[in-house]
Amino acid sequence: MHEQRIIELITRKIAGEATAEELGELSYLLTKSPDAVYYEALLEQVWELGRNEEKPDLDEVFNKHKLKYKTELDFRSNSKLKLTFFKKPAFLLTIAASILLLITTHFVKNYIPATKEERIEVIAGKGIRKEFTLPDGTIVLLNSGSRISYYSDMLDRKQRDVNLTGEAFFKVAHDKMHPFLVNTSKVSIKVLGTEFNIRDYPEDEESETTLMRGSVELTVNGRSHQKFILKPSEKFAMLEKNEVSNSQKSSSVLTIENISPVIFGGNEYIEEISWTENKFVFQNESFEELLPKLERWYNVKIVLKDPKIMSYRFTGIFVKENIIQALEAMQLIKSFNYKLTENEVKIY
After folding, report:
1. Ordered structural domains, the chain, with CATH
2. Sign of the torsion angle spanned by Cα atoms 13, 18, 23, 26
3. Which of 11, 80, 129, 304 has its CA 20 to 30 A from that of 63?
4. 257: buried, middle or exposed (CB in 10 Å: 19+, 13-18, 0-12)?
């Protein structure tokens, strides 16, 4: 798509005629078309040949060129003007670049197999939260224990699609001509430009999509006819449970509701997106529900020895507390004991 412009800029660079702006443009285009670096190597070889002490017979070169392309080009200009102009280094390099581009393009199309589509994956391990920007300008905040992948040529596609496992908050760059699509194991979300949060961990029974601004179109996987349009401050939750233990049959409960802030010490917190500000907020959640969240947040393995502790319910907020401080704070609400060994916590 950008090959012709890349060749032109490389030609000017090798000839020492490229401006700072053109060098910057070349660097940007090469990042979008990494294979184009081969053009630079080949053109440098052509340039070196042109600087060789044994100068080629330009009359012979021109005659051969004329015979080869006589049916396609007009060579009626006079011989003196022809040779004077043809001897100019810049013109020589331009002709060489043009011919080389034709040869290279033919070779790539016919002899080099097409490269496979490359997907880039970003991973945030347990205890880690990462912020980065996609090629289209979309800002992504990736929660701990999550991963996201996207095509390296996202900008050249009809739609900007990403795959998510875990949780992420998106500030989508607006582009009405190229919809932004997020795929998870349970749902697909289509937007044009908005801010929303998705949580869909494989180990969790429930997945959530929370919309902060704009609008999104949500489709449940396997039910293409079932679409939901969310409005700002609405949350879509999908709970899947097996009908019978060890059975392949499952039931789904779909819920759409308005999000409500959690109030602590006179301050309001949005539980669904508090993690983006490094705040772990939870309201009336059982120890069973909190367990996987604590494991991801603190990068520890938690083992509950007493089944009745599973039903203990907690409300709170952790900001800078470590795992020991967090457990001691929870002990003030419900009585339990714990033992910490390296990266494992045993609760009894």
Report:
1. 3-111 (no CATH), 119-259 (2.60.120.1440), 267-347 (3.55.50.30)
2. negative
3. 11
4. exposed
- Average of pLDDT values for 305-315? 91
The answer to whether the beta carbons of residues 180 and 191 sit under 8 Å apart is yes
Phi, psi for residue 108 in degrees, rounded to 5 = -65, -45
Burial of 300 (0-12, 13-18, 19+ CB in 10 A): middle
Annotate 74-101 with DSSP letters as a single string: ---S-HHHHHHHHT-HHHHHHHHHHHHH
Q: What single string gives the DSSP state of each residue in 25-93?
A: HHHHHHHH-GGGHHHHHHHHHHHHHHT-SS---HHHHHHHHHHHHTTTS---S-HHHHHHHHT-HHHHH
pLDDT digits (tens, 9 = 90+) for 13-31: 777 777 766 776 776 676 6
Residue 249 has which token pair?
């049959």
pLDDT band at 11 (very low <50, low <70, confident <90, very high): confident
Q: What is the pTM of this model?
A: 0.65
Whole-number Å distance between alpha carbons of 73 and 190: 52
Residue 4's pLDDT band (boundaries 50, 70, 90)? confident
Please provide the average confidence, as pLDDT, over all residues in the chain.
Answer: 80
Confidence band of 161 (pLDDT split at 50, 70, 90): very high
* HSE value, Cβ hemisphere, 13 Å, CA-based, for 186: 25
With beta carbons less than 8 A apart as the criterion, state whether 219 and 182 touch. Answer: no
H and E: helices and strands count for the chain? 8, 20
What length is written for the chain?
Answer: 348
pLDDT in tens, 179-228: 999 999 999 999 988 999 999 999 898 999 999 999 999 999 988 888 99
3-class DSSP state of 16: coil
Contacts of 341 (CB under 8 A, 6+ apart): none
